[in-house]
Design goal:
single chain; alpha/beta; 5-stranded parallel sheet; 4-stranded mixed sheet
């Protein structure tokens, strides 16, 4: 067996493609926060393509971790010279393996926050990119305002504090650039949030305004925040996956990444200090990302919430198990066609009906082995961004909402902590205690879950949606998921006579 590192690249099996470029001379042009599986299967892969094509000079990646758990990534990438194996799985079972070399440096902020600040302040750094999850921005979904009460933010706002948070570090990096006369970089979010660039702008400028109002004004005038839509299903790396890489390829890689073959990146062409020629390696550069991001968030990501909560309640463990079941696949297609798709406008170059069928095929693929548990982590951050905009758009007219209400009801039943067979469900959510408290009151105060305004805003005040939610919740409690879905598919959404309630 060969342990992955720069010195062993020439000893790897021929089945593994390796970097054909000289990594020692690559300059860092991108500092990236959140070096998880998705970043390494997506943005880092695209930069690797550029480097392979001889187009990526000056655009190497410096990864940054800030969470305690990121120490493990620091240790692995240090041992492996920042190399890792990407296994791309095709629907027919074929697997392409490639060692990705575009991450040329990794910094663990708790070790040396000043090193991160200097990397941000380096004139070579022209883009700071983010995959910090939907909940990492601290922007309230209901109000659209930055919430400055997290412990990390409270710490960073103290006079003279050494920053610990993403936006604390970025703000300090920008302050140093301003003071040294270095132009500002671009902040590029690659998270699954509608208007992710706009959300990043709100978070950074709001934090900076609290820290240094004069600096905030400079950031407002100098920093670009392009929106983007990103897509590639990338499960969490498991010990089983590591062992499979060793067995299949004969290489010891402590943190490989497995992804599907489908990949998409639609990026707004707005940058402060230039950008890599990403259009040369399959990235779609556009003036307006919104049609693409709405399509993905309301069809793919909202469907993931349906699969996750309904599937777990029914006793499934994996995405492909749910989507190979004819009842659940019919439910998903009907949700997409009747409730999500009507909220979308035209998407240039995309056939929406074909896209929905393609999604189901991707979900049903057995080669990914994606878990339902991954999909439902921090549901209180994901559902407001993916599903609730569909419901609000449908309520604004006379659109169908019954299937969306069933998904929300399944979410509330999931929070209760047991599936239809009485088995315990693990709940990982930043608002777990408040969610449990709200759902515990449903027995005596129906609809109390919807009145958790930090998640649902004023949605619980809408009589039509409240009625649909309560009906779905009662059905799930009495009949279970399978019987409820079967009944819902056999009955059309009742027409709205007098329009939505206010």
């Amino acid at each position: 067996m060969v342990r992955l590192s720069t010195s062993t690249l020439d000893r790897l099996p021929e089945a593994i493609a390796v970097p054909g470029y000289d990594r020692s001379g690559i300059r860092t042009g991108i500092v990236h926060f959140g070096v998880g599986g998705f970043h390494r299967s997506h943005q880092a892969m695209f930069i690797d393509r550029l480097l392979t094509a001889g187009l990526g000079d000056g655009w190497g990646i410096c990864g940054v971790g800030i969470l305690p758990g990121d120490a493990a990534m620091r240790d692995v990438l240090t041992e492996q010279d920042n190399l890792y194996t990407l296994l791309v799985t095709h629907p027919d079972g074929r697997v392409d393996a490639r060692v990705i070399g575009s991450i040329v440096r990794y910094l663990f902020a708790p070790d040396d926050p000043q090193a991160v600040i200097e990397a941000l302040a380096d004139p070579d750094t022209r883009i700071v990119s983010l995959t910090i999850t939907e909940g990492g921005y601290g922007v309230n979904d209901a109000t659209g305002e930055f919430e400055a009460d997290s412990p990390g933010t409270v710490h960073d706002l103290e006079p003279g504090a050494v920053p610990e948070t993403v936006f604390g570090l970025i703000t300090e990096g920008l302050r140093v650039r301003r003071d040294r006369g270095i132009p500002a970089f671009t902040v590029m979010s690659c998270d699954n949030i509608q208007g992710n660039g706009a959300i990043a702008r709100v978070a950074l400028r709001s934090y900076a305004a609290l820290k240094d109002p004069e600096l905030e004004r400079w950031i407002a005038a100098q920093v670009a925040f392009p929106n983007s839509m990103v897509d590639r299903i990338t499960p969490v790396t498991t010990d089983q996956g590591r062992a499979e890489v060793t067995r299949r390829l004969g290489v010891v890689d402590e943190w490989p990444v497995v992804s599907e073959s489908f990949v998409q990146w639609v990026l707004e062409d707005t940058f402060t200090l230039g950008r890599p020629p990403l259009e040369q390696v399959g990235v779609q550069l556009v003036a307006d990302v919104e049609p693409y991001e709405l399509m993905k968030l309301r069809l793919l990501n909202a469907s993931h919430q349906a699969i996750g909560h309904l599937g777990l309640l029914a006793g499934f463990d994996y995405v492909h198990e749910v989507c190979q079941d004819p009842l659940f696949s019919a439910f998903l297609l009907r949700y997409m066609a009747e409730e999500a798709a009507p909220t979308l406008g035209p998407v240039p170059g995309i056939d929406l009906a074909e896209y929905q069928q393609q999604l189901l095929q991707r979900f049903a693929s057995t080669v990914i082995q994606d878990t339902l548990a991954r999909l439902v982590v921090d549901g209180s951050e994901r559902i407001p961004k993916f599903l609730l905009p569909v419901i609000r758009a449908q309520l604004a007219g006379t659109g169908a909402i019954r299937l969306s209400a069933l998904i929300v009801a399944a979410y509330s039943r999931f929070i209760e902590g047991t599936d239809d067979n009485g088995a315990a469900l693990a709940i990982q959510d930043v608002r777990r205690d408040r969610l449990r408290d709200a759902v515990s009151r449903e027995a005596t105060d129906p609809g109390s879950f919807l009145r958790l305004r930090e998640v649902f805003g004023d949605l619980g005040d809408d009589d039509r949606f409240l009625a649909a939610y309560l009906e779905a919740r009662r059905a799930l409690a009495v009949d279970g998921v399978v019987a409820t879905i079967r009944r819902y598919l056999s009955v059309a959404d009742p027409p709205v006579v007098d329009g939505p309630a206010s």
